[in-house]
What we know:
Layout: E1 9-13, H1 18-29, E2 33-38, H2 41-51, E3 57-61, H3 67-80, E4 86-89, H4 104-131, E5 136-140, H5 155-175, E6 181-187, H6 204-210, H7 223-234, E7 245-248
Parallel strand pairs: 1-2, 1-4, 2-3, 4-5, 5-6, 6-7
Helix pairs in contact: 1-7, 3-4, 4-5
Amino acid sequence: MSHAFSGKKLLVVGGTSGMGLETARLILEQGGSVVLVGNRQEKADAARQTLSVLGPVSTLVGDLMTEQGTKQIRDAINAEHPDISLMVNAAGVFFPKPFVDHEETDYDMYMNINRATFFITRDVTKNMLAAGIRGSIVNIGSMWAQQAIGATPSSAYSMAKAGLHAMTKNLAIELGVHGIRVNAVSPAVVQTPIYEGFIPKEEVEGVMKSFNSFHPIGSVGTPRDVAETVAFLLSEKAGWVTGAIWDVDGGVMAGRN
């Protein structure tokens, strides 16, 4: 078994399911410890129970849609986990809707997550700088930040994820001199619980299969597909990579069949 992450502590914002959870699993399998941030206690407890057989797991629960919930998470990180050396920002929601149908509450939903991501990352980074930690941060961006898809109108979501891509590059420039690397992945369609927000759970698998041909490689992604790349970017094997936005998308950004 690899011990590539021995002595490393990973914070995963949005780590109780999907790509965040799978990334946490990989880091635990390779000797690290993890802190999962989620918005529901029962989901966080289930994730901790699932992963704890692999290594040290702790959880923080708060509503990132609110300033109070975000502050609760930030305070807990600063008090209990100032030694975080790895971070993944995987929190997100996805509700396709035509541009003209958007209400302010729709827009705020995406921007509140970006706000939480921004300030939680700021606090983690300040702790890294104070402790002289040469850390690594990976943001889960999106193909939708780079191109529009007619079948899934996503103007507000795309705007938010494009902002996350931009933050990635800015932080890479600012923090590189301190030995802190910041990268992002840009997935296409990945089968995660995020789609259950607007597709009945029993229909998700069928809808996902209908998107297989959208990807030149012939299938939608799995959380593990993306997590493997995230873990690589977190690792010292990617020690000369920063400011990158990697397409992990089954070939979608390469073109069309």
